[in-house]
User: Which sequence fits this backbone?
């Protein structure tokens, strides 16, 4: 765990979600890292989905430039606020950009990114998003890398740390 990242109960957060147990609280300079998880595989190929709960606690309406999760070396990265209040999927071959859904408040949101891996070999896949049950189709393209399982970094782009998330994350 990076500096000051901490597990916090939903009771202590006072968010009314007391039955959910604990969340990861990130203060804008902290992160959580699993540097070498022992998963038996180095990557996931084929279709994938990334699901999490998030509560941003910074100022909305500005470019926050923050990482929610980074798998390996952006394979993929889940990012927030690189476009004002926009949630995105990023990897070196593509990015959702302004097509990503917006989260312009400091409430809890349920997020799912889905890559159906439906493009022909040598082409790029598109990604859909679901935010609080609302479907956002084809939020971006260029996604063709397997999901890296070599390391997980939650709340930052790098252990520098860089592009650090301010808020709470839950699984």
Assistant:
């Amino acid at each position: 765990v990076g500096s000051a990242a901490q597990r916090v109960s939903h009771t202590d957060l006072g968010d009314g979600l007391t039955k959910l147990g604990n969340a990861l609280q990130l203060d804008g300079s902290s992160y959580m890292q699993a540097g070498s998880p022992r998963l038996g595989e180095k990557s996931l190929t084929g279709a994938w989905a990334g699901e999490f709960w998030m509560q941003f606690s910074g100022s909305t309406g500005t470019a926050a430039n923050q990482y929610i999760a980074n798998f390996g070396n952006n394979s993929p990265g889940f990012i927030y606020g690189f476009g004002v209040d926009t949630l995105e999927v990023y990897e070196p071959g593509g990015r959702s950009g302004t097509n990503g859904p917006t989260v312009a408040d400091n409430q809890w949101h349920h997020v799912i990114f889905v890559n159906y891996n439906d493009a022909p070999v040598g082409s790029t896949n598109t990604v859909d998003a679901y935010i609080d049950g609302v479907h956002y189709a084809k939020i971006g393209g260029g996604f063709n890398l397997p999901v890296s399982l070599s390391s997980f970094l939650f709340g930052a782009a790098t252990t520098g740390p860089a592009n650090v998330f301010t808020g709470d994350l839950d699984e």
